[in-house]
Every structure is written in C-alpha cells, then in structure tokens.
Design brief:
Length: 448
Amino acid sequence: MIDRWMFFAGSAALGGTLGWLAGSREGLAWGLLLGLLCWQLLDGFYSKRLLDWLRSEQSNETPVMMAGAQPPLVGVWEEIAVRVRRLMKNRHEQYSESQARLDEFLLALQASPNGVVLLDEEGRIEWCNQTAAQHFGFDARRDLQQHIVNLVREPGFNAYMANANFSHDVVIPGNFNTPARPVKLSVHIHRYGKDKKLLLSRDITPLEQAEAMRRDFVANVSHEIRTPLTVVSGFIETLQHLPLKKPDRDRYLSLMAQQSQRMQTLVDDLLTLSRLEGSPLPGAHEWTPVASLFAHCEQEARALSGMLSPQGHRLEFDAGTDCGIAGFGRELGSALSNLVINAVRYTPEGGLIHVCWKLLSDGRGMVSVKDSGPGIAAEHLPRLTERFYRVDRSRSRETGGTGLGLAIVKHVAQRHGAELKIESQLGQGSCFSIVFPAARVRRQAQPA
Ligand code: ADP
C-alpha cells in the first residue's frame, strides 16, 4: 500500500515541480492536477488489466487456469491478483476434495447389494445405483428427474407413496417377475434432509422361497404325523370304551403298533435330514469298504423282501473290485439302503433287483440299484428327490414310506461330491445310481 501512496505523492510532486518551474503558483496548481490525472490514468489502466485478466480467466470456467496464470500487473494490483489467485486455488482444491469424496461415496452406494434411490421433495429421482435400476427396470441416467410413481406402476407401491407412512416396508413384485419365476422386492423409504427421501430396495425372493419351503415342510410333517396319530387315538378310544374280545384287541394293538412304527420311521428320517444339514462335510480320511456296505444292505433287503411278500424277490449283489469310498460310513450306508429298500418296496414279488459297484475308466466309482419294478413316468423324475414327493402315494404308505428317502440319498450324495442319477421308464423298471468322484474312490489293499 505504501508504494501506492508513494507513487501518488511522486506523481503529484513531479507535476507540481514541473508546473512551478513552468510558471509560478498557477503552474504549481496545474502541475499538481496533471500529476494526479496521470496517477488516476495509470490506476485505471491497471484496474482494467486486472479486470481483463479476471474476465479472461473466468471465461475459461476452469479455476485451474486461474490458479496457474501470471497477471501482467505491478504493485498493489499484482498483489490483488495474487491473492485472488490463491483464493481461487484454495477453492479449487476444496472443490476437488469434495468431488472426490462424493465420487467415493457414490461408488460405495453403487457397491451396495441393495438398491438405493435418492428422491427429491416431489418424489423425482435424483440418483439411483445400478442395483435399484435392475430391481425396478430404470435407466440410471435417462430416468433421472422422473417421478418414481410414473416409473414404478405397482399399486402397492403407489399406495405406499400416497399414504406417506414410511414406518414400515412394502413388498412388491420386481422387474423380472413372472408367474413361473416370481421376484419379490422389499422397498423401504426413509426421510432425510428437508422432505427428501432415501429409497432402499432388497431382493427378498430367496427369503420368500425359503419361507414358503419352511411352511410347506411344516404342513407336510404335520399331515404325515396327524394321519397315524388319528388312527392310534381312534383305537385307544375304542379299547377304552368297548369290551373287546382278545382277537379283536390283539388286532387293534397290532394296527396301533404299525402306526406308531410309521411315526417312528418319519421322525428318524427327519432327524437324519436335519443331521445331514447341520453336520460338517465328510472329509477324505474315513474309508468305508464297498463290500461291507453291500453286505449290510443285502441283509436288510432280504429281511424286508421276506416280510413284504412270501415269495420274495430275486436279489443280486455284486460288490465288484474291492474298493473303498471316502466319507461317513453311516451316511453312505443310509443312502444305499434307502435305494435298495425302495427297489424292494416298489418291485412286485418275484422281481429282480440287481445292486452293483463299478470302477469307471476315469477313476470314478458308481453304485447302482436296478429293479424290474413298475418304473416311473418321465414327468415325475425331476421331482423325485423333493421332500414328501411321491408318485404312488398309497404304495408308499402301504410299504411304510415317508417320502423322504430319496431326499436323504440326494443330500448324502451332494455332501460326498457325488451325483445321483435316475433312469426309469414306465413298465421298464428303474435304475438309481450314485457316481462318486475319483478323489473319493480307491482300491482296497489286498490282504497278504
Ligand atoms: P418313499 O418313502 O415314498 O418311498 P422316496 O423319497 O424314497 O419316498 O421316493 C419318492 C417316490 O419315488 C416314491 O414315493 C415312489 O413313488 C418313487 N420311487 C422311488 N423308488 C422307486 C422305485 N425303485 N421304483 C418305482 N418308484 C420309486
């Protein structure tokens, strides 16, 4: 500032001196005036330069240019320019920093597994992430500033928006919802700022499916238990209130025993399934000889065959090359016996049941249970391993089936990295095979 005053004083002094030298007092006054005019002109010149410089920098609309350019100025004007430039530089740094933070924040919202939509006071979309775009079928760029109710046409959602009661979520069908493949979204709105809204959407299809499966399962179990329970309680009432003769009494008691055995088998199968779901996967250090699995199953099959029909079945067991399977012996035994028992139960008496073990050329091992029974129509094959799915309900019940046998087999196979294959044709018998991966199969050491 001092140099400015000095320049002012210098111009006035120079003008005054020259005026005085030129012509006494009046000359002094004119000289002073001229000096001041020169000072004013020079000041005007520099202020215009500063203004031009500022204008040219702003016209670029990039604060970076402003921060880097050198103004063609001197003295106080240069200082003003430098200070303006520094201010702009700071502003620019702050701007870049908040821009980077905003970008990071938006990236984090993009990475969210849930849909995120920011709505303004009117319910127009200000921003949405890719997940939300997929959930609702938006175009994340084109649909900005569109009213969300114009894009999401679900009556449930429109009512939710109209009521403006956002204390709970609303469940609506998702973008790719079809009757065959239902897609369910849970949508929840949260208010923020000055009546702005944050919309969160979550794909709850798997949860809904699991819930539906749980409901079906409970309903099925209740139904399966209720039937024998009704029979047993009916007999108990009869025994309590009617004076029965010994043969009738014995017959009733034996029917009751049958029904309680049915409940027992059901509970056993349910426990087996829940154990399979809850226990750790079988390792590769416990080896079960195929021969011992076969021996145990053969015993069971012969006993059952004799019980179900006087003539029995033709049972063939071929354990093939002496091999072992890595996995839990108890689970493997339960899977094989379920297949063999099914073959016995569904094959009419006198039929052939052939159980064999084969070591395949690629090192895998296959156990198959083939029967000459009624066979299964193609439309049932994909659903056979569903819990409680039965083709022939009455045959299953008559022979003590629970509808869980093949579900157990499939579970055991999966836990051992194996595959359950079912081949069957109506009237042509059935063949159930479990193919074990090579890593779980080995030849047993031959005894010396
Ligand atoms: P279940 O206890 O009813 O036998 P499973 O899960 O073991 O239940 O079998 C499901 C259904 O598959 C059975 O109800 C039966 O209809 C059919 N099934 C299973 N094994 C055979 C077979 N060897 N021959 C014909 N049908 C079979």
